Amino acid sequence: MSNIRITKQFSFETGHALYGYDGKCRNVHGHSYKLSVTVIGQPITDSDHVKFGMVIDFGDLKKIVKSEIVDQFDHATVFNKNTPHVELAEELKSRGHHVLLVEYQPTSENMVIDFSEKIKKQLPSHIKLHSLKLQETESSFAEWYASDNI
């Protein structure tokens, strides 16, 4: 049986700031992120199974990514909790803003690593995360591949 890759794309809006950075991105700003999630597996061969012929139902993949990533990060502002941005984060939270404090500098590179760990934990055991592509702007993106992280 052949392994097949299935990809689903997602969009969300997130703000962030890069503490200590020497360019404009040290300021709070936002992006319209596009996330492509690719999983790999073999299509179900049991003709009595409701998902016959599918590697994974696109709807099931959507539920995982929506719950773990999109619902958490959409219209949130993300700060590294180990920086002085914590004070700004607390002020924003006190005013009702959706703020995420993470263990890392919230670059696309680190976000895609975080996302890979969250998604892998939720996938059925017979499905593997193949790759992620997190597009920050029209011309800038970070990619994570399972094969690069063995």
Automatic annotation (TrEMBL):
- Enzyme class label: lyase
Q: Pathway of this protein?
A: Purine metabolism; 7-cyano-7-deazaguanine biosynthesis
Q: Which reaction does it catalyse?
A: 7,8-dihydroneopterin 3'-triphosphate + H2O = 6-carboxy-5,6,7,8-tetrahydropterin + triphosphate + acetaldehyde + 2 H(+)
Q: Which domain of life is it from?
A: Bacteria
| Keyword Membrane included in the entry's annotation | no
**E.C. number, please?**
4.1.2.50
Q: Name one GO molecular function term.
A: metal ion binding
Note describing how the cofactor binds: Binds 1 zinc ion per subunit.
Instruction: Tell me which cofactor or cofactors this protein depends on.
Output: Zn(2+)
Which Pfam family is an annotated match for this chain, by its short name? PTPS
Q: Does the keyword Zinc apply?
A: yes
SUPFAM superfamilies hit by this protein: Tetrahydrobiopterin biosynthesis enzymes-like
Q: List the keywords (alphabetical).
A: Lyase, Metal-binding, Zinc
Q: Which PANTHER family match?
A: 6-PYRUVOYL TETRAHYDROBIOPTERIN SYNTHASE, PYRUVOYL TETRAHYDROBIOPTERIN SYNTHASE
Q: What is this protein called?
A: 6-carboxy-5,6,7,8-tetrahydropterin synthase
Q: Which organism is it from?
A: Christiangramia oceanisediminis
